[in-house]
Amino acid sequence: MAAFPQLRLRRLRRTERLRALVRENRVDAGDLVYPIFVVEGKGIKQEISSMPSIFRFSPDQLDAEIEEVAGLKIPAVLLFGIPKQKDELGSSAYAPQGVVQQAVRRIKKSAPQLLVITDVCLCEYTSHGHCGVVVGDQIDNDQTLPLLAKTALSHAEAGTDIVAPSDMMDGRVKAIRESLDKDGFQQIPILSYAAKYASAFYGPFREAAESAPQFGDRRSYQMDPPNIREALREIEQDINEGADIVMVKPALAYLDVIRQARNAFNYPLAAYNVSGEYAMVKAAVKQGWLEERRAVMEILTAIKRAGADIIISYHAKDVARWLQSA
Fold this sequence. Notes:
By secondary structure, this protein is an alpha/beta fold. The chain has one domain (26-325): TIM Barrel. Helix content is 38%, strand content 19%. It contains eleven helices and twelve strands. Strands 1, 2, 3, 4, 5, 8, 9, 10, 11 and 12 form a ten-stranded mixed β-sheet that branches. Strands 6-7 form a two-stranded antiparallel ribbon. The chain is globular.
């Protein structure tokens, strides 16, 4: 290897065109998934106070949002539902006319080319706010599995393109795969929240989805943040049960987990740039402490550089606009 002064690594950093020519990682609009919150009712468009520029929409108010997303060449949306009625078993999650099911039908009618991914979990739908069936003061893993499978099946019947279980119950990918296959939906992929950590960065989401637990927390089923070998076991288990895409969530504080997952598994890998990460940037930008475009692009590039193929981000629309204007 040549030494200085013959070797001058700065030569290729001198101009933007030179930097772009040798750039190793790029974020593209085609990498992005945009999360959308849908709330039961009509005529509703509510901004979420902790997530500036992010709204809850009733299904009848989705058309303009979907048209914008599709026009920005973002390939997919991820839907979360907020029902009017909640109960102990989260029955609105798998109701044929549930809010997510309504939204899927509307989106597939107005923008059939857009991929619709549906979050499969019970936390937004249960009166206690937990992701599974509560027995006493415990979350019953095995009683939850049939309800998750029923939810995924109802999404497939509504026309979703991908189901995404986020509950972190053991065995849920297998239960969902078996249910979909039994009812003729062998073609529907599963995007598993395989390594989902019990993170402090979910706070704004819980406001948005009205899904905060009414007692305790989710640390008995979501992953302990210090663990990385366990994440690889979780991912391997979900792949063995039939997951087609696996996810690490959150992204920014878990770039090392994304990298290890990329090295270990030759599967499509998603990372979720979560609500708290989004809110931190927005708050700092509002104070004049960060330049939004540079900060967001640096964060998403880091997620891509760590090994993610797919980036789920509330910044997705802004990023797609910036890329179009570049």
